[in-house]
Amino acid sequence: MDEFHKQKTIPGNIEDTPLSTPLQIPEEIGPYKIDSLLEKGGMSILYLATHPETKEPVVVKVLEPKYLSRQDIVQRFIHESKMIALPEHPNIVKLYGHGEWEGGLYIAMEYIQGISLRQYLMRTPISIKRALEIVIDISYALCHLHTHGIIHRDLKPENVIITKEGQIKVIDFGIAQLLTEQPDPKAPAKQLIIGTPIYMSPEQRENPDTVAYPSDIYSLGIMTYELVLGKLCFGQIHLGLMPKGIKQILHKTLQLDPAARYQDIVDYIADITAYLESANFTEEAAGRGRLNELYEGMKRAQAVICGEKPPQWDELQIDIYTRNEGEISLPFYDFHTFDDQNYGIILGKCIDNQPEALFFTAVLHGMIRALFKSGPPNQEFITSLNQLLTQDDIKHNFSLVLLFIDKTKREFRFTSCGNCPLWIVHHAEQDKLEKIALDNPLLGADEASAYKEIALEWNPENTLALALSDDPDEMEGIIKKKPKEGQPFTVITVRPMGTIANKPQPEQEDQPA
C-alpha cells in the first residue's frame, strides 16, 4: 500500500516546471479580453478575462506552449473541454467556450470565487446537517454527470469549490471519462495511476479505463466520511466514529466489490435525505453540532450584510478579494448607485473581534443604508453616522473607508475613520502604490468628533483600492499577489472596464475553476 501511494498519477505526472519562455500577457484570447494572470501551473496557464457580452469575469485556461508538441497532453486538454461542455448544472463549473488561438488552445470557464472543500474542512467548524447538505449538492452534480454518461474519476475535496454564498461547484474534468469510451488498444500495458489514491476506488486502482458509476460513488463515500467527521482522514477510515444512520450508508458505499455498492447515485441521495428527515438524525445530531450550527448561522448573517456579488456598474469593474475564512467578525462592505453616474462604496469593520461584534456591525449597516437613501454622501455623512452610533449606545468603535466616485466631474471623494488610507495603484509606473491618508478618529468613539474629507481628480488609468490597512508592505504584497501567509484581508478594487490591472490574488482562497 505504501508503494501504491507513492506512484505518480495522471493529473500530476508533469512536474511544475518554469515557463519555457518569459510570459507575455496577451490582450485577447479568442473573444475574451484578458485582464490579468491568475495562476501558472505545470501544464496550463490561467488568466482572468472579461466576457465580451455579459462583462462577467471568466477564467481562460490555455495550454502552456512547450506542451503543444505533446500529443497526449494536447488530447487530454481537448478532452477536458469536451467533458465540461456536455453537462450544464448549477453545481458544475460552466463552460463558456473553447478553441484555438494564436498561442495554441484555450478553455473559457466560469470564474468561481471561493475555497476548496479541503480548505473548508481544515479551517471551518461544520455541523452534521451542513455536512450532509454539502454531500447532497455534490451528489446532485454527480447525478447530472452520470445521466450524461460521464464518470468524473477524480472526485476529491480539492475538486469541489464552496463559494462565499455557500454554493457547491464540482471542477476539474481533466481525467473524466464517457462510459461509452473504450480503452486505447495502443496504450502501454503498464499505465500510470489515473486519479488520487486516497479517494480512488479499488477497481480504479486496478484498471482506471474500465470503471463505472459506483467508482465515483465510492469516492463520494470517502468525502462523506470526512465531512461528517469534520476533518480530513488521510485514508484512515473508522466507521465506528460515525453516527449509526450514516455508518449504515457508508458501509454500503465503501464496499470493496463495486457490485455490492450503490449502483445509482439517486439511491445514495434518497438514503442520505431519508436519514436527514428521520428521528434518528435528530437524536444523533443533538449535542454534536449545536455550536457549529450557531457558527454557520452567523456566517450566513455575514453574507447577508456583505451581499453576494460585486455590483455591475457601467464602465467600471469592481472586484472583491478576501481571505478571512474562520473569523467571526469580518469586514463588511456596501455599494450604492446615485443617478447612474455617481457611486458610493463603503468598507468597515468593528475593531472588537468578539462574536457579538457581528450584531453591532448589522446595526451600523442599517444606519448606513438609511443615510444613503437621502442621496449621495456629502461632507457631513460620516459626522451624521458617528452621531447616530454614539446616540444608540452601541459602545463599539469601527474603522471605516468611504469612497464616492462622480463620473460626470471625473473626481472622487474619500474619507475614513481610524488609520485606514485609500490606495491608488499607478499601473503606468509598474503598479506603484500611493497612500492617501486622513487623520480621522474611529467611528463611534466620540459624538463631538469631526471628520475631514479629500477630493481628487480621478485618473481612469489607475486602480483605486479600499482596504483596512495602512501598511504599504502589506498592501504591496496583496496587490502583487503575494500576501503574507495566513494574513486575513479584504480588498475592494475599482477600475475602468478593460483596464489591465495586477489585481490581488490571495493564495489558496479565491480559486478559479
Description:
By secondary structure, this protein is an alpha+beta fold. It folds into three domains: 102 residues, 2-Layer Sandwich (Phosphorylase Kinase, domain 1); 169 residues, Transferase(Phosphotransferase), domain 1 (Orthogonal Bundle); 194 residues, Phosphatase 2c, domain 1, CATH 3.60.40. The chain is built from 13 helices and 21 strands. It has a six-stranded antiparallel beta sheet with strand order 1-2-3-4-6-5, with helices on one face. The protein has a five-stranded antiparallel beta sheet with strand order 12-21-20-17-18, covered by helices on one side. Strands 13-14-15-16-19 form a five-stranded antiparallel beta sheet. α4 runs antiparallel to α6, α7 packs antiparallel against α8 and α11 packs across α12. The longest helix has 20 residues. It starts with a helix and ends in a 17-residue tail after the last strand. The relative contact order is 0.10.
Structural domain tally: 3
| Total E-strand runs | 21
Per CATH, which architecture of the largest domain? 4-Layer Sandwich
CATH class of the largest domain: Alpha Beta
Outline: globular
Quickly give the structural class.
Answer: alpha+beta
Radius of gyration, in angstroms, nearest whole number: 25 Å
Task: Tell me the name of the CATH homologous superfamily of the largest domain.
Answer: PPM-type phosphatase domain
Low-confidence stretches: 1-20, 187-193, 500-513
**Helix content percent band:** 25-40%
Strand content: 15-25%
**CATH fold naming of the largest domain:** Phosphatase 2c, domain 1
* SS field, number of helical segments: 13
- Biggest β-sheet strands, sense, barrel: 6 strands, antiparallel
Main sheet strand line-up: 1-2-3-4-6-5
Mean pLDDT: 80
State the separation between the terminal residues, measured CA to CA: 31 Å
